[in-house]
Design goal:
Structural class: alpha+beta
Number of strands: 26
Organism: Arcicella gelida
InterPro entries: ABC_transp_unknown (IPR019196), DUF7088 (IPR055396), Motility-assoc_ABC-rel_GldG (IPR019863)
Number of helices: 12
Protein name: Gliding motility-associated ABC transporter substrate-binding protein GldG
Keywords: Membrane, Transmembrane, Transmembrane helix
Distance between the termini: 17 Å
Strand content: 25-35%
Radius of gyration: 30 Å
Pfam family, one: DUF7088
């Protein structure tokens, strides 16, 4: 009896000690291969520094939703559970099933429409129940509320050219980023400042509306008259949007020194200008805006050419010949509008949908010491390069393709540059120059992005209805491409000091079952799963009984 009492006290003290240690020293072990339950340090810092309650309403739930969406729902719940560990009582969440909460169909539809207006697009999904195909409406998103502010985030995101299972897996991988970035935006107390140059672009304001509307909630936007601004001090980033006027040397110097002082920059620049010359085609001419030597110094060359992509390109209406006494207008692949669906290894473009481009040229990297160059946007391998000046005839679009002519390979059209840049004006600013006192020949560490298509961040305009179209929307196919996501990710990467965007690098591997083997060996594996556990339990019971008999018969 005495020994048993001592044993009991030792066990009690050990359990008490473990609990006391656990209450003081927190740790978790993630034994999964891809660390699916481990959130990034940036997300942890964000959550640990919350100063008030963040409430998350998740609408991705419901009775009988397909297994793939159920897996995504579970991933959201698991991620929010992890968020609560680091955010404590400042993170609260609930899952809302609109079908269960609103029995009245009219009321439910009104609620769905209101949520859709906030940016969570309803998705129709099909499921098999007892051999019957059923259709249900799912809202794959969440609304995050903080104080008097709220923001919606879409949780179903992926490349539309992937299979449904791959899209769901891409969405699974992006859950942490979508939730953490939404929390970051809704809780932000200070907005970064972005300058837009108004002197150098002819792009109408109506073609910038969706871009401005997407950036405005999270950043302070400033139109900058570069010619009358002595410096770019006070800005965090500059956005060079489709310049068509030549930058003078003074303004180029201001951009250079802004970057030398650690400023971020994103350039959407065309090296070729395209004009319509007749019904037969367009004219491509070399366009120099004066930034070529600046970008070359930083490590990238804009080439005066156009890419024809035979595999991935958008369609436009073209006259393919007469039909009786009338023109025969058909949607025809226009190879000068490549759809970019090949991406580099960067969180900016991970799991991104295809990007719509118009008359895009190539980028080459050149030597720049200490600069890390990461390709972001690339064409398919079936390309042909057209050097400007040249005529682009509409007739070729209706002809059969000669595959042997499309042998230029994968071409880069978007590039990320990171590091400490060297000034274009190094060894050119003399002590007698008034600018010498504040001149920096070697820069602080910073980042810039260069894209060789000025139309990526520009939206089209519906003249018939007098309304701007969404950024990335193709009015001929009705598809909305990922242009807006790319621009927002790019700006986020440039200006995100916390590094939340790194969460986009999370990778969850698909491990599908072998359906053929499953069908053939179904009975075998069912037997194994049913019988083996019973046998193990029986063996343990017999062994325990045998041990007790030996112990108490002595």
């Amino acid at each position: 009896m005495k020994n048993k009492s001592v044993q009991f006290i030792i066990i009690f003290v050990a359990i008490l000690g473990v609990n006391l240690l656990a209450s003081r020293f927190f740790f978790r072990l993630d034994l999964t291969q891809e660390k699916r339950y481990t959130i990034s340090e940036a997300s942890k810092n964000l959550l640990q520094n919350l100063d008030d309650e963040v409430y998350v309403k998740v609408y991705l739930t419901g009775k009988g939703i397909p297994a793939g969406f159920k897996r995504l729902e579970n991933a959201v719940k698991e991620t929010l559970d992890e968020f609560q560990i680091y955010g404590g009582t400042n993170i609260k969440y609930t899952f809302i099933d609109l079908n269960a909460e609103y029995k009245d169909e009219k009321t439910r539809n009104e609620k769905i429409a209101a949520i859709a207006q906030k940016g969570i697009t309803p998705t129709n999904v099909y499921n098999n129940e007892d051999g019957k195909k059923t259709q249900s409406l799912i809202l794959p998103g969440a609304i995050i509320t903080y104080k008097d502010k709220e923001i919606a985030t879409l949780l179903l995101k992926g490349n539309k050219l992937s299979s449904p299972q791959e899209i769901l897996n891409q969405s699974y991988e992006g859950v942490e980023y979508q939730l953490a970035s939404a929390i970051k935006r809704v809780t932000a107390t200070e907005k970064k400042k972005i300058g837009f140059f108004i002197n150098y672009t002819n792009l109408p304001a109506v073609n910038q509306l969706d871009l401005i509307g997407a950036l405005k909630p999270n950043y302070e936007l400033y139109p900058v008259d570069l010619r009358n601004s002595p410096t770019l001090d006070g800005l965090d980033a500059i956005f060079v949007l489709k310049p068509e006027q030549v930058f003078n040397d003074d303004d180029k110097y201001k951009i250079d020194q802004f970057i030398m002082n650690g400023g971020k920059a994103i350039f959407f620049v065309d090296a070729v200008k395209v004009d319509s010359v007749a019904r037969e085609g367009n004219m491509a001419q070399v366009q120099s805006v004066g930034l070529e030597d600046l970008l070359f110094k930083y490590g990238v060359r804009l080439n005066p050419n156009l890419i024809k992509d035979a595999q991935m390109s958008a369609a436009i209406p073209l006259d393919v010949g007469n039909f009786g006494d009338r023109s025969n207008i058909q949607l025809t692949q226009w190879q000068y509008f490549p759809l970019i669906n090949t991406f580099g290894k960067s969180p900016i473009v991970r799991n991104l949908d295809a990007i719509y481009t118009k008359y895009v040229g190539t980028l080459d990297t050149v030597r720049a010491n200490g600069i890390l160059k990461t390709p972001l946007l690339m064409t398919s391998q079936y390309t042909q390069l057209l050097k400007a000046p040249a005529i682009m005839s509409y007739n070729f679009a209706s002809k059969d393709l000669n595959a042997s002519q499309y042998n230029a390979g994968v071409q880069t059209v978007g590039l990320l540059l990171e590091g400490k840049f060297e000034s274009l004006y190094k060894n050119r600013i003399l002590p007698s120059d008034a600018r010498f006192a504040n001149f920096k020949a070697d820069g602080k560490a910073t980042k810039i992005i260069v894209c060789s298509d000025g139309d990526i961040p520009a939206n089209d305009f519906d003249k018939k209805n007098n309304t701007p179209l969404p950024l990335g929307f193709d009015k001929y196919s009705g598809n909305t491409f990922a242009n807006k996501d790319f621009v927002l990710n790019a700006i986020d990467y440039l200006l995100d000091d916390n590094g939340v965007i790194v969460a986009r690098n999370k990778e969850i591997k698909l491990r599908p079952l072998d359906k053929a083997a499953l069908q053939d060996d179904r009975t075998y594996w069912q037997s194994i799963n049913l019988i083996i556990p019973v046998i193990i339990l029986a063996i343990l019971g017999i062994a325990r009984n045998f041990w007790r008999q030996r112990k108490y018969t002595r």
